[in-house]
C-alpha cells in the first residue's frame, strides 16, 4: 500500500513536466556527453606526459594513435593537446546546453506545479481553507515549490552527471591500474554511511524549520493586515518583540538544521585527501622502485580519484537536498491531497428565481452534532422579498447566509433555492444566481472599473454607472480626477471604508442576481445614504430577493419580514411592528439603539 502511494506520488509530479518533456529529456543526454568528454581529458593529459615528455613507449593511447606520431615528438604533444582543447570546448558546450535545457525544464515544472496548487486552493470550500493558514499556503506555493524545483533540476542534471562521472572515472581508473583502484572501493561505503546518517537525522530538523517559517509569515501577515489596529492601540513595540521572537525561533531552527549538514563538507574532503595521499604514496613507490608506472598515469589516476570523490559528494549533496525537500513535498501533498468538502453537481440547472427555504437545518463548523453553530433552522422566503436579519454578535447570522451559496454545507436538513436543494446545482450556476457582499469588503489592485467588472466581465459602461447610482457610489467616483479609471491600490487602500462598501455593493449588483445578500455591508455608511441604497433596491430590483444583515434596526425596519436570531436559532420572524409587539429580544435591541441615538442627539 505504501509503495503504491509512493508510485502515485511520483507519477503525480511527472505530470507537471507536461509541455517541457523535450528539455527534460535533452538535459540528461547533454550531461552524459559532458561527462564522457571530461573523463577523456585526464587520459589525453596522461598520454602527453608519458608519451610526449617522458617518451615512454607503453604510454596510454599508444595503440590508438597513428604510428607516425613518435614518442617524445612535438607532433605527438601538439596533436594530443589539440584533442584536449577540442574535448574541453565540446564539454563546455554540452555543459552550457544542459544548464539551459535543465533550467527551462525546471522553471516549466515549477510553473505547472504552482498552477496546480493554485487551482486546488481555488476549489477549496471555506472549511478547507480554514484547515490551512493563509501564510502557510503562501509559503507552500512559493518556498516549498522552489525547493522542489531545485530538486527537479538537480535530478535531471546532477543525478545523471554524478553517477555517470563515478562510473566512467572508475572504469578509466581500473584500466590504468587496478591495484591502486581498490582505494575507491574502500572509501565509497564510508562516505555513503556518513551521508545516510546525516540525512536521517536532518529531515525532522528541516520539517521544524519550515513550520517556524510559517509562524514568521503569519506574524508579518497579521501585522500588515491589522496595521491600523496596531497603531490605534500603540502596540508597535509589542509587535516588534513578537516578530523578533518568531525570527529568532526561525534562526535557531535553521542553525540547528544547517549545523548537522555542515559536517558533510569536511567528511567529503577528508576522504578525498586521504585517497589522494594514499595514491601518491603507493603510486610514487611504483614509479621510483618498480618503473612500472608512469608519472602521467599517476596524474590521471589522481584526477579520476578527484572526479570519483566529487561525484560521490554530488550524490551526497543530492541526498541532503532531497532530505530538505522531503518536508516541502509533504506539505505540498497536504494541499494537493486535501479532500474538497463541497463539490457541485454535474448539472445545467439554473437559479430561476429567488425563493429560499431552510428545512430543519443544523450546522457545525467542526461537523459535530454536539457542537452546533446553527440548530433547527426552518423558514421560507418568497422571491423578491426583502428580509432583514438581526441578532447579537456571534448568534450565527453570517453563518446562516453563507449556507445559501454553499460556502459551507449543512450538517442536517436542507437549503433550497427555487425549489431545488442547493446540492443539485453546479457551484458555478448556484453562485451566478447569488451575489453576496461579505462583512470584510475586499477590493483588488487596479482601477474602479476593473474591480466593478468582477461582478460582470461584460458589463457596459452604462450598466456600471447604473449599478453605482443604485449603490450611491457614482458621486464620489466622479469626484476623482480619473473617475472610473481611478486606481484603488492594493486592497482598495485609496478609498474610505464607506466608499469601499458602496463599491462592493455596486459590484454585487452588476451580476443581476436572483438573490442579493448584504452581510452588514452598510455599517460604515451614514443612515441617509443607507436609506437611499435601500430605496434604490425597492425601485430598480424589486424581483431580486434581498437578505440584509444589519446591526442597526433602522437599516431593516422597512423590510418585508425580519428574522430574529438568538444562540444559533431563529426565535421569531415578522414585520417590524409585529416583532415590536411580541419579540422581547427585538424590542430590547430597538430600545437600546433608540436610547443611544437620543443620547447622541442631546
Question: What's the helix and strand layout?
Answer:
Blueprint: H1 2-14, H2 21-53, H3 74-122, H4 126-130, H5 134-156, H6 158-176, H7 182-225, H8 227-232, H9 236-261, H10 264-290, H11 295-336, E1 356-363, E2 374-381, E3 386-391, H12 397-402, E4 412-417, E5 420-421, H13 427-432, E6 434-437, H14 448-452, H15 461-470, H16 474-478, H17 497-509, E7 515-519, H18 527-540, E8 545-549, E9 561-566, E10 569-574, H19 576-582, H20 584-601
Parallel strand pairs: 3-8, 3-9, 6-7, 7-8
Antiparallel strand pairs: 1-2, 1-4, 4-5, 9-10
Polypeptide structure, described:
The protein has 602 residues and is of the alpha/beta class. The chain folds into 2 domains: 11-336, ABC transporter type 1, transmembrane domain (ABC transporter transmembrane region fold, Up-down Bundle), CATH 1.20.1560; 351-433 and 552-602, Rossmann fold (3-Layer(aba) Sandwich). The protein is 62% helix and 9% strand. The chain is built from 20 helices and 10 strands. It has helices spanning 2-14, 21-53, 74-122, 126-130, 134-156, 158-176, 182-225, 227-232, 236-261, 264-290, 295-336, 397-402, 427-432, 448-452, 461-470, 474-478, 497-509, 527-540, 576-582, 584-601; strands at residues 356-363, 374-381, 386-391, 412-417, 420-421, 434-437, 515-519, 545-549, 561-566, 569-574. Strands 6-7-8-3-9-10 form a 6-stranded mixed beta sheet. A 4-stranded antiparallel beta sheet has the order 2-1-4-5, with no helix packed on it. Strand 7, helix 18 and strand 8 (545-549) form a beta-alpha-beta unit. Helix 2 runs antiparallel to helix 11, helix 3 packs antiparallel against helix 5 and helix 5 (134-156) runs antiparallel to helix 7. The longest helix has 49 residues, at 74-122. It is elongated.
Amino acid at each position: 500500500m505504501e509503495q503504491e502511494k509512493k508510485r502515485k506520488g511520483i507519477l503525480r509530479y511527472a505530470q507537471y513536466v507536461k509541455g517541457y518533456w523535450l528539455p527534460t529529456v535533452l538535459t540528461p543526454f547533454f550531461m552524459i556527453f559532458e561527462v564522457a568528454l571530461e573523463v577523456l581529458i585526464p587520459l589525453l593529459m596522461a598520454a602527453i606526459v608519458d608519451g610526449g615528455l617522458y617518451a615512454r613507449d607503453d604510454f596510454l593511447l599508444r595503440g590508438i594513435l597513428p604510428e607516425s606520431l613518435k614518442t617524445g615528438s612535438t607532433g605527438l604533444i601538439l596533436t594530443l593537446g589539440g584533442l584536449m582543447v577540442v574535448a574541453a570546448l565540446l564539454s563546455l558546450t554540452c555543459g552550457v546546453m544542459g544548464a539551459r535545457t535543465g533550467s527551462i525544464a525546471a522553471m516549466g515544472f515549477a510553473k505547472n506545479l504552482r498552477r496546480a496548487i493554485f487551482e486546488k486552493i481555488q476549489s477549496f470550500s471555506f472549511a478547507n481553507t480554514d484547515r490551512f493558514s493563509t501564510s502557510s499556503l503562501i509559503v507552500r506555493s512559493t518556498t516549498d515549490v522552489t525547493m522542489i524545483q531545485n530538486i527537479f533540476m538537480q535530478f535531471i542534471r546532477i543525478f545523471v552527471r554524478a553517477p555517470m562521472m563515478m562510473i566512467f572515472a572508475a572504469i578509466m581508473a581500473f584500466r590504468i591500474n587496478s591495484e591502486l583502484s581498490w582505494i575507491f572501493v574502500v572509501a565509497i561505503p564510508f562516505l555513503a554511511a556518513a551521508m545516510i546518517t546525516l540525512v536521517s537525522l536532518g529531515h525532522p530538523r528541516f520539517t521544524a524549520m519550515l513550520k517556524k517559517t510559517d509562524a514568521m509569515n503569519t506574524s508579518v501577515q497579521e501585522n500588515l493586515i491589522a496595521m491600523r489596529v496596531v497603531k490605534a492601540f500603540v502596540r508597535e513595540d509589542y509587535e516588534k518583540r513578537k516578530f523578533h521572537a518568531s525570527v529568532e525561533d526561525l534562526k535557531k531552527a535553521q542553525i540547528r538544521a544547517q549545523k548537522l549538514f555542515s559536517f558533510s563538507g569536511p567528511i567529503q574532503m577528508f576522504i578525498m585527501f586521504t585517497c589522494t595521499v594514499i595514491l601518491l604514496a603507493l603510486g610514487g613507490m611504483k614509479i621510483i622502485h618498480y618503473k612500472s608506472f608512469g608519472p602521467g598515469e599517476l596524474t590521471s589516476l589522481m584526477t579520476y580519484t578527484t572526479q570519483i570523490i566529487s561525484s560521490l559528494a554530488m550524490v551526497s549533496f543530492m541526498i541532503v537536498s532531497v532530505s530538505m525537500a522531503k518536508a516541502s513535498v509533504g506539505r505540498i501533498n497536504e494541499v494537493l491531497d486535501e479532500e474538497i468538502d463541497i463539490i457541485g453537481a454535474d448539472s445545467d440547472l439554473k437559479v430561476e428565481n429567488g425563493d429560499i427555504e431552510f428545512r430543519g437545518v443544523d450546522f457545525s463548523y467542526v461537523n459535530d452534532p454536539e457542537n452546533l453553530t446553527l440548530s433547527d433552522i426552518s423558514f421560507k422566503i418568497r422571491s423578491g422579498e426583502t428580509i432583514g436579519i438581526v441578532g447579537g454578535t456571534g448568534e450565527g447570522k453570517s453563518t446562516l447566509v453563507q449556507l445559501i451559496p454553499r460556502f459551507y454545507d449543512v450538517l442536517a436538513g436542507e437549503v433550497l433555492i427555487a425549489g431545488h436543494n442547493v446540492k443539485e446545482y453546479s457551484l458555478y450556476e448556484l453562485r451566478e444566481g447569488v451575489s453576496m457582499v461579505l462583512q470584510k469588503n475586499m477590493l483588488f489592485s487596479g482601477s474602479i472599473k476593473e474591480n466593478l467588472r468582477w461582478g460582470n466581465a461584460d458589463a457596459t459602461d452604462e450598466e456600471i454607472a447604473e449599478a453605482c447610482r443604485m449603490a450611491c457610489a457614482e458621486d464620489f467616483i466622479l469626484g476623482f480626477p480619473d473617475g472610473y479609471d481611478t486606481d484603488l491600490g492594493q486592497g482598495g487602500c485609496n478609498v474610505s471604508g464607506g466608499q469601499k462598501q458602496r463599491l462592493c455593493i455596486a459590484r454585487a449588483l452588476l451580476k443581476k442576481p436572483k438573490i442579493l445578500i448584504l452581510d452588514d455591508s452598510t455599517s460604515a455608511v451614514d443612515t441617509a445614504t443607507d436609506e437611499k441604497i435601500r430605496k434604490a433596491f425597492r425601485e430598480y430590483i424589486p424581483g431580486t430577493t434581498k437578505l440584509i444583515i444589519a446591526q442597526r434596526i433602522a437599516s431593516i425596519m422597512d423590510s418585508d419580514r425580519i428574522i430574529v436570531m438568538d444562540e444559533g436559532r431563529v426565535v421569531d420572524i415578522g414585520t417590524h411592528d409585529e416583532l415590536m409587539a411580541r419579540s422581547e429580544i427585538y424590542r430590547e435591541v430597538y430600545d437600546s439603539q433608540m436610547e443611544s441615538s437620543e443620547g447622541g442627539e442631546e
